[in-house]
Amino acid sequence: MSVLKFEKVSKSHGDTPVLRDIDLEVREGEFLVLLGFSGTGKTTLINLMAGLDTPTKGEVLFKGAPITGPGPERGVIFQSYSLMPWLTVNGNVALAVDTLFPQLSKVERAAKVDHYVKMVGLSHATTRRPAELSGGMRQRVNVARALAMNPEVLLLDEPLSALDALTRANLADEIERIWEAERKTCVLITNDVDEAIVLADRIIALNPDGTLGAEYQVTIPRPRERGEMNHHEGFKTLRADITNYLMNVGVEAKVEGSRILPDVTPIHGVPTAVAKAQEGLIDNRFLDFSQLHKVYPTPKGPLTVVEDFDLKINKGEFISLIGHSGCGKSTVLTMAAGLNEISKGAIKLDGRHVEGADPERAVVFQSPNLFPWLTAKQNVAIGVDKVYPRASQAERQEVVEYYLERVGLADAMDKSAADLSNGMKQRVGIARAFALSPKLLLLDEPFGMLDSLTRWELQEVLMEVWSRTKVTAICVTHDVDEAILLADRVVMMTNGPQATIGKIVDVDLPRPRTRKALLEHPDYYAYRQDVLDFLEEYEHGASPKSKPSTKTAASAIAAE
């Protein structure tokens, strides 16, 4: 039976079309996932289902009747939590229960609140207020509040996207468990392919032009445990099909380049001509972390955040640093950048101790920190003007424009930063870092705030520009696929405090790499499993059992 139905629905905001000629049926009891990226109209679709918006053309029906506004039969969970900050967990859930079920006795309403708070695993936190909860716990309250309304359809608008990877995975499992128990009709919007496959009965991709794209039936038996999915051929095939479809319709080649990099030399002495970019530098142990410690003073005494971090990196290597939230990844990176004092041990770059910030060590943060009143070109030029004091103004301008072209901003160089999208701002940040011709490139979750499609695009951009410079690089990430895609070695950190290196995996996959090629490589899922196994082992705070292993996943399989 059809619960929700779209009949030739189009939606425009002013003269801008968002959705075009949507014909869609949502069947009773199914878990439908709408998969797409920023600007494809996903949220507009959910708002039409919820009755929070009306179509420009066509009709949206609930059980055959036109939807004219919101209703308790359609519960919505948004990306933001929208909790009352002065109310407790129970108070926030009771707000919905008291409004919708005034006919119930006080005892019955309290029992209903308790039931749904327990269902999302928050019985231990009933008296806490939102400020005392983590992001994941606040979203659980949101889920409990929506479920307590006992809706016939649960509409989920990217409810997990603001959460860290581990919390996101755990809450997705919780949503699936609730769906299994309640058998409500669920519609989920996401930009995460793995999340879509784990949860859905049916996946529909949304095209950038606002039309419905390819449809995929997910026939993998439930429950779908994430670790087991990594070995499931059906999962691998479906994952590759969906990823390739989304890349084909959404990721266009935006890397351009007609300019030639001028043969000028920055102040720290590394030639910028690509062919000479690494001449004159030591090859082995180019970057040397030696028994690195970071200790912070606290009222209860010294707190050791990072302990005995020991890593040797050769010139031109790309290292991914991965681990759970709070494991000290960014602390290590900021010490390498000279932005965070070293408590004990040492970091040497090209044979010299790292002391304070220096443009020879360029950093790309999660937020690119641009000057909003300056253009893209001016933002990049600030650093270039400082590190190329002997170059002419024309040569410095050539350096700036070369790297902005490389990251796909040839047509947006003169736009102010305030007028750029988040993805375009991060492109400027990447261009600015490479334009310094650094000896070391440090990337601190540079794509963490971006949707998956933009993230995929910028990973391709980063790899393309890196392949030309072969600059030594470290990228902090929580994304397993990103870590493998970018790196020569994946360095995995144990949980903090007293975090250290738990395991190192050599990634022996051919370069240049693309996401499509990686998904088709026979060793890719073995590397992925190596990293996933480590993260699962440390999910609950395990301690390292032995010295770091450098055995690769592929060689381990070959030895068995």
What does this structure look like?
With 560 residues, the chain is of the alpha/beta class. It contains 17 helices and 20 strands. Strands 6-7-8-3-9-10 form a 6-stranded mixed β-sheet, sandwiched between helices. Helix 10 (376-387) crosses helix 11 (393-406). 44% of the residues are buried.
- The end-to-end distance, rounded to whole angstroms, is 51 Å
The counted number of beta strands is 20
Spatial sequence of strands, sheet with the most strands: 6-7-8-3-9-10
Note poorly predicted spans: 252-256, 269-278, 544-560
Instruction: Count up the helices.
Output: 17
* Average pLDDT rating: 84
Shape: globular
Approximate helicity band: 25-40%
| Helix-strand category | alpha/beta
Q: Which radius of gyration do the C-alpha atoms yield?
A: 25 Å
> Major sheet, described briefly?
6 strands, mixed
Tell me the strand percentage band.
Answer: 15-25%
